[in-house]
Amino acid sequence: MEHLLAAVDLGSNSFRLSIGRVAEQNGAKHIYQIDRLKETVRLAAGLNAAKILDDESVERAIEVLKRFGERLRSFHPDRVRAVATNTFRVARNVGDFLPRAEQALGFPIEVIAGREEARLIYSGVSHTLPISTDRRLVIDIGGGSTEVIIGRGDEPLLTSSLYMGCVSYSRKFFPDGIIDNYSMKQAELAARREFEVITKPYRKMGWDAAFGSSGTAKALFAILTEGRLSPDGITREGLEKLKAKLVRAGRVIPNDLPGIKLERADVLTGGLAIMSAFFDEMRVDVMKTGDGALRLGVLVDLAGREEAHDRRDVSVLAFTKRYHVDTRQSARVKRSALSLFDAILPDRTEQDELRHTLSWAADLHEVGLSIAQAGYHKHSAYILNNADMPGFSRVDQAQLGLLALAHTGKLSKAQNLVKNREQWLTILCLRLGVLLCRRREDVANLPLSVSVKGLSIVCKVDKKWLASHPLTDFSLHGEETEWGKVGFNFELIPV
Fold first, then answer.
1. CB neighbour list of residue 20: distance below 8 Å, 6 or more residues apart
2. pTM of the shown model
3. 3-113+296-301 and 310-446: same fold?
4. CB-CB neighbours of 232 under 10 Å
5. Strand partners of residue 39
6. Is domain 310-446 annotated with CATH 1.20.1640.10?
7. What pLDDT sits at residue 419?
8. What residue ranges of the chain have pLDDT lower than 70?
């Protein structure tokens, strides 16, 4: 069965939209890109020294997103994923800008962490390369960040995200477009200092071939090959020749650089300095280019989620092992919480993603016990908010952290974090699931049922069961008080 998926990549230099047709061949799913949109936005150039995004850049971005939104108007929300990268990560006024951006696009926008960006980039690159057991080194020089990955097959082994990019470096070291030996050397030295942090583990692991996946890499490849500066793609010798040519000219002159696109001219120099530093630090001699990148990685991830090969499931499993979670207990809590969720929020189409989040939160709500029992829910929340969790966006992790924080104790601590009624009800399901399983014994049949109407919660409990469980009785009466503090009326009715 064929259908369409869409990925939106909100980069620091360009915004891109890719639409892929998913087709099954010989039992495997393949993605064929059928439409692409790309617009240069230069969002990173709109950041001032205080990391505030200026109004002009915001409005430019909004107009692009409106055009993307028109193309995506017929898509189901489950088949569109929009991710935002470094400029969104660092801009201090992103909270003001993001709701407008989401409204313009018509879909939620995930601000992803640097390592998650690196994972998705590698996924996109590996999807377009021949199947191989070789280790591959991939660099993606974006507008505001640079991702470096070593992977084998479809699996990334090392991932890093460094705070430098072609827009930020061009702006910092070549602000007036003038190129000289001193400025180029300073830009390279700055980039080498960034790469030094990761050089040792990357060299130790080693790789068989290097690939560049960004617009910078593709621009350099085109300039070097079409300008006859390097017959073998991106090479150390070719980069040196290009640097010398630019220094002699004193600036980027597009007519003198065959293969360059006009929109790339203003940020070429910063990207060249970063790539040259990468070659020196990693001791790379030759690099190929990969067609896939972040947006294709997002499409691959979306297709995987539809196949139930959700990368987030793998991350959750890894965390249960890493933090020595009692999986039997988390399974008990999950069964109880999901049973309540299905009764309270039966519209599975609308609430499917929220149900997934509840399931993962139930799996991981006790990760904080690995730190300390006292206040473990706070430790759990901190871990889930801040750890690198491949497949999860910052929004995803914030949801997990919220559920972990609110699954026990006072509800008032979560009041400023909850955005809607559905989140409150998801918290309710997890709290009751944890409460019912406190004895860490299997619960064959739930002794209670819950109904919700507006802000009224009615919890009916088997009175015989309640009489034999005085601690649970006490805890349920405590829920009446807690939910009252956050605006709900929680009524406990023995039946």
1. 4, 5, 6, 7, 31, 32, 33, 34, 296, 299, 303
2. 0.73
3. no
4. 13
5. 15
6. no
7. 86
8. 1-2, 24-29, 306-309, 347-351
CATH architecture of 3-113+296-301: 2-Layer Sandwich (3.30)
For residue 435, what pLDDT is reported?
A: 93
Rounded CA separation 284/278 (Å): 8
Listed by start position, the domains of the chain span: 3-113+296-301, 130-289, 310-446
Report yes or no: 211 and 290 within 8 Å, Cβ to Cβ. yes
Give the CA angle between residues 307, 367, 85 to the nearest 5°. 55
- Bridge partners of 448? 461
Q: Give dist(CA 127, CA 121) in Å, integer.
A: 10
Phi-psi sector, 368: left (phi>0), alpha (psi -120 to 50), beta? alpha
Reported as a single tens digit per residue, the pLDDT across 217-227 is: 999 999 999 99
Residue 399 phi/psi, 5-degree rounding, is -65, -45
Characterize the bridge pairing of strands 3-10 and 80-84.
parallel
- Alpha-carbon distance 295 to 311, whole Å? 16
Distance CA 143, CA 214 (A): 10
Residue/partner pairs of 476-484 with CB below 8 Å, 24 or more apart:
476/435, 479/431, 479/432, 479/435, 482/410, 482/411, 482/412, 483/411, 483/428, 483/457
Neighbour tally for 439: CB within 10 Å? 11
